[in-house]
Amino acid sequence: MSQTPVRIDGEAVTAEQGMQIRAPYDGQLLGEVPACTAEHVDRAVAAARRALREDRLPAWRRAEILDRAAELLADDEVADDLARTIALEAAKPITTARVEVTRAVSTFRFAAATCRTVSGEVLPLDASEAGEGRLGFGLRVPIGVVGAITPFNFPLNLVAHKLAPAIAAGCPVVLKPAHQTPLTGIKLAELLLARCGLPASWLHVVTGSGSEVGAELVEHPDVAMITFTGSPGVGWGIRQAAPRKKVSLELGNNSPVIVQPDADWAAAAKKIAAAGNTHAGQSCISAQRVFVHADVAADFVRTLVEAVEALVVGDPLDDTTQVSALIDQDARDRVTGWVDEAVEAGATVVTGGKVDDAGVLRPTVLTDVTGDMKVCAEEVFGPVLAVATYADVDDALQAANDTRYGLHAGIFTTDLALARRAIEELDFGGVVVNDVPTWRADQMPYGGSRDSGNTREGPLYSVLEMTEIRSAILS
């Protein structure tokens, strides 16, 4: 099979070695992409640097490019092709893949709006004696070449969350998509370059291993900023390897959700069942740790299990499928291993926990869990919900906070005072009241603390990260 080329400085590039891309669900060969080398990265970065010097785009042109991208992504033919590609290479159910395409439309639209409206500020220089008679203002200027490293779980929209703000900020980009799901990112780059008017020097794609291509991008002296979404271990390793760069990290979570007895706990159970299994639980804010009040725990678990068992598991291209395969066999084996470890430590499998005849891990609900089990202490990144009970909401809030992560949390309650208290006390980047922690709008400030990262994404917030203030003083 011939390689699907990547674009570097406008040229369709292949490599001596290739990487096969196989469907996680059935193993079919989907394509082959170049196994790029350090030389490819050097060439891409050099072209991006040249764009900063020779091919700078005014804001109105960048905004038009972003608007055009949103229009094309909304086109039925383009959207269907991208959704199918996502479903095949990520095993994301096709209905969920279509939602991802729709979200990417919003991401580009908000980036275009930010491009047109983001501004600097007037500096009150005469607030000090030395500044009297001088006029000052702060300009937002591009930080430089951005290296974007994206994960497999949202191969379109998380690429969009890197590329669209970078274009809005005036930063040329070198993109390294996840090695498991590069085809979607390649298609998006082709769309921007061939049909949206983005100059060839502004976007370059390098596919390959993290150890070679990723490391070269991270350590390259002409890359001003790395924006990375992925695992904490890799993310903090990047931060350590590039101490002189700006490094924006959006990492993992083991999202807690608290269910109070005054809430509509039955509706909460159904929402949590879906949120814990969307894309087989492979989301940074997938519901994972469930704390339910003892007064309603038995009924809640029964309703939760009914909702989980009603989920349709199977082929991601089937419109009825709600849960499909994990990204690869290693991921599946890791998750099943953690479930088995939890059972050995005293947890109970209420449903799921087994791999079916198609090789798909069935959506799983565990009870009798403790905080030190991996299914609670770590990020499962699989279709597993771990349910614990509590009698005092103070204990639930404390247990939710007892984690090295800090991305999103949720609480279901009709008590406004408790909701306000939860927002104040839950130590997470986002606290969602009366919905699952998996909820996100693409324009909101999204990110966390501790092992969940060090930044906020969303087009406006990413543009602020990708620009610097330059002080201008007129005497």
Automatic annotation (TrEMBL):
Taxonomic superkingdom: Bacteria
Annotated Pfam families: Aldedh
Keywords from the named record: Oxidoreductase
Keyword GTP-binding in annotation: no
GO molecular function per UniProt: lactaldehyde dehydrogenase (NAD+) activity
Family to which the UniProt record says this protein belongs: Belongs to the aldehyde dehydrogenase family.
Protein name: Aldehyde dehydrogenase
